[in-house]
Amino acid sequence: MASIFGHVAASAALGYSAFPKQVRTATILLTGFCAFAPDLDVLGFRFGIPYESEWGHRGWTHSLVFALVFGSLMAWVFFRGKEDFRKMLLWCVLSTLSHPVLDMFTNGGRGCAFWWPFSPERIFFPFRPIQVSPMSVSGFISEWGLIVLASEAVWIGLPALAVVLIARWVRRPDETSA
Prior knowledge:
Layout: H1 4-18, H2 25-36, H3 64-79, H4 85-103, H5 137-140, H6 143-171
């Protein structure tokens, strides 16, 4: 899995590039939670749910269906009836969806059940440059944790920054038409 830092960075980049008028501390926190939420499936380990189960880590919570349902639910709970509901709905769904997409670029684990419930198959992308993050805080505070952060800075942070800067440049008023 990518780390919580990588997932939240991708979600924030989505907001700053595609939904700049909706960016506030509260919306960054909510969409950051949406981006992180699929990894709450690790709690299943405490209840004896095995990794390889469709209910286990990177199973149903790492699917397109989960992203649509969870992102929609978060938008409905926090933004229903508001003028920017549709934009927040899209941002919440895309933030949730960004999680399995990033995880499918990692070089470890069992892949994501992206097409669940239609297929329980765990999949990765053919190109997997992101170093897989440890699943514990103690594992993250180590030399491997620094390697993961460096990998995410290159493969998530730089592209996210580029997308935000390009979006700002495209939105910039044409200075020649004044």
